[in-house]
C-alpha cells in the first residue's frame, strides 16, 4: 500500500510539473507577431541612430524597405535574417500595421549644429541647390516633411546620427533602392557639409503629433525614383 501511495504521489507531482512547464499559448495577433520588430525599433517608437522610427511611415515605403532587405539592396544581417523567409503578402501586412501606428514623437534632441549650418540646411530642404542639381527635400517629402503616400517617407522626427548614416550608406553604395535610385543620386551631389546641414536642420524640428503623410504632391517629382509608383 505504501509503495502504491508513493507511486501515486510521484505521478501527481509529474502532472503538476508538466502543467507548470507547459508554454503559455500566445495570441495570434499582428501585435504579437511584430513583437520582434518592436524589440529593436522600440515600443515607444522614438528610434535612434541604428533603429529608426517606423511608426506612421507610408505602408508602401515600409514594404519597399522590407523587400530591399529581403532582396539584398539593403545590408543589415539581423533584418535580412528576419525577413528572408517571409512571403511578400506577410511583408505587406507588417508594413500596413506600422503605417497605422502613431506614437508620440520625442522632443528634438540637443544638437551641435551651428546656426549657420541650420540655416544652410533650411535652404537645402526648402529650395535645394540648383547649381548641383539638388532638388528641395520638400519637393519629394512634402512641405511638412511628413512623407507622401504610398511610398515616400517622412523625415521629421529622425535622429541626426541616423540621417547622417543613411546618407553615408547611399554615398558608399551600401544602401540601394529600386532603379533609378534617386536618393543615391542626391546623396552623391551633396557635400559632406551639406549633409550635416540637412541632418542638423531636420533633427532640430519639432514634430506635430497629429501630422500624417500627405495624400499627394502638388507637382510631379523633380526626378524619377524607382520605388515610387508613377
State the gist of this model.
By secondary structure, the protein is mainly α. It is 49% helix and 0% strand. It is globular.
Description of the structure:
- With 230 residues, the chain is an all-alpha fold.
- It has one domain: Cytochrome Bc1 Complex, Chain D, domain 2.
- It contains 11 helices and no strands.
- The longest helix is centred in the first third of the chain and has 20 residues, at 2-21.
- Mean pLDDT is 88; it is low at 1-11 and 13-18.
Q: Helices and strands: which structural class?
A: mainly alpha
What fraction of residues sit in β-strands?
under 5%
Low-pLDDT segments? 1-11, 13-18
> How many distinct domains?
1
The profile of the biggest β sheet is:
none
Number of strands: 0
- Which of globular, elongated, flat, extended, rod-shaped describes the shape? globular
CATH fold name, please?
Answer: Cytochrome Bc1 Complex, Chain D, domain 2
Query: What series of H and E elements makes up the topology?
Result: HHHHHHHHHHH
Q: How many DSSP H or I helices?
A: 11
CATH class: Mainly Alpha
Mean pLDDT: 88
The percent range for helix content is 40-55%
- What's the CATH H-level homologous superfamily? Cytochrome c-like domain
Distance between the termini: 84 Å
CATH architecture: Orthogonal Bundle
How big is the Rg?
24 Å
